[in-house]
Amino acid sequence: MKKDITYVDGAQLEQLIVDAGLTPLTQAGFIKVAAAKGRAVYVARTKKVGRIDISGFLYAEAGVTALGGSSFGAVKQQVDFSRPEADILLTFKAILEHMKTLPAAEVKKKASPMARTKNSPKPVEASSPADRKDRLAHIKKIAAQMGVNVSPATMALADDSSK
After folding, report:
1. How would DSSP label each residue in 60-115?
2. Of 21, 37, 40, 69, which sees the most CB atoms within 10 A?
């Protein structure tokens, strides 16, 4: 246990969750409390809690510390456990009430592969036969300078690459 952290009884936090009308979801290392889709609070799943993460929203009141440049996915803030236990409990209760007022987070829709194909720019027109002839002549010239033979398969690929 760290000396500068005030640990709070996990049962007290769970009671605040129930009193707020929210349902705790037990996970491996945390208890997840969600009010709206994409908005959640994660409480460390221990008897004495020293960490609560705020995910999917920002809480602009006192009692919360920002993670700064680092984050854990959507977690950008944590409850400040360097304060007295009563203050921590009041902050947690206020966060739960605030979370209930938030709308569901907007889901960023990913374009399906078909949609990307339909909306993608049209391919550049194929080069003319004269351009292909120049490209093949250039490949042959470079190969001759290097003293290597170019296989018919490579030449066919070069000839077909811009059709």
Report:
1. -STTEEE-TT--BTTEEEEE-TTS-HHHHHHHHHHHHHHHHHSPPPPPPPPPPHHH
2. 40
For residues 42 and 31, the answer to whether their CB atoms sit within 8 Å is yes
Exposure string (b/e) for 54-89, b if CB count within 10 Å is 16 or more?
bbbbebeeebbeeeeeeeeeebbbbbbbeeeeebbb
Compute the radius of gyration of the chain from its Cα atoms: 30
**For the whole model, what pTM was predicted?**
0.62
Q: Which of 107, 110, 80, 104 is nearest to 94 (CA)?
A: 80
CA atoms of 78 and 50, how far apart (whole Å): 10
d(CA 161, CA 13): 65
Token reading at 29: 């290392």
In degrees and rounded to multiples of 5, residue 139 shows phi and psi of -60, -45
Q: What is the C-alpha separation between 123 and 125, in angstroms, rounded?
A: 6
Which pLDDT tens digit goes with each residue over 38-80?
888 999 999 999 999 988 888 888 888 888 776 677 788 889 9
